[in-house]
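Sample intake sheet
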Amino acid sequence: MILNDIREKLQEIDPNVFYGMVDPVMQETVWDYIVFNRKPTKVNENKTGYSYYFTVNIVRENFIPEGLDMAVIEKMRSIPGMKLAGTDMQYTYVRKPNTNAVVEMLSIDFVKAVKAA
């Protein structure tokens, strides 16, 4: 299953990998993690297949270390058929609750084409 493949590849980089969202209890103590999720699936114009879209969000307290983005891209591209979606990578910043510390998040979109059965 593709979601298991994604989780396994990302766990090679970071043991704290979550699907959809971080467990709220864990989020109070862990600020360095990766979250991935699905995006809308597109039916290809020729109707012979689908394009499955995914977003990988790298979250780090203070800042994302240089090169971590490329490591995530490399791992995701090692999944057969997975490619960068061609969208801009987006950075987001929030303040860690009850502190002045910043949390940086980078969102990277991927696509995997699959032929219809």
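Comment: The longest strand covers residues 102-115. The helical segments are 2-11, 24-27, 68-77.
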